[in-house]
Amino acid sequence: MDRVGMVRDLDSLGRIVIPVDIRRRLGIGKHTAMEFWMTESGLIMRRCVGEACILCGELQHLTYFKHAWVCIFCMNELKNKR
Ligand SMILES: [Zn+2]
User: Quick check: 37 and 44 in contact, CB under 8 A?
Assistant: First the structure.
């Protein structure tokens, strides 16, 4: 995770503008659906991909593990790295 070094204030309705440089870099266009993830350290916002493996993007064989979807293939790979 990279800190981008930009600070923005929420407006009176709780909205925030994502700087255009960041939107371009991440391929976020107008009307892109965004989703929010709450973690122990704060809030993560990313382009909505629905339920997909956070490591490889697989859409099937998912299990929910520590606030994220992970596929069984990545789970097995992680288990074998011990
Ligand atoms: Zn995976």
Answer: yes
Distance (Å) from CA 70 to ligand 1 centroid = 5
Q: What is the pLDDT of residue 20?
A: 93
Each residue of 30-45: b (16+ CB within 10 Å) or e?
eeeeeeeeeeeeeeee
Task: Clarify whether residues 3 and 19 are in a common domain.
Answer: yes
- Residues in the chain predicted with pLDDT less than 50, given as ranges, are none
Entry pTM: 0.55
76: CA distance to ligand 1 center in Å? 9
Average pLDDT, the chain: 89
Q: Are 74 and 64 within one domain? A: yes
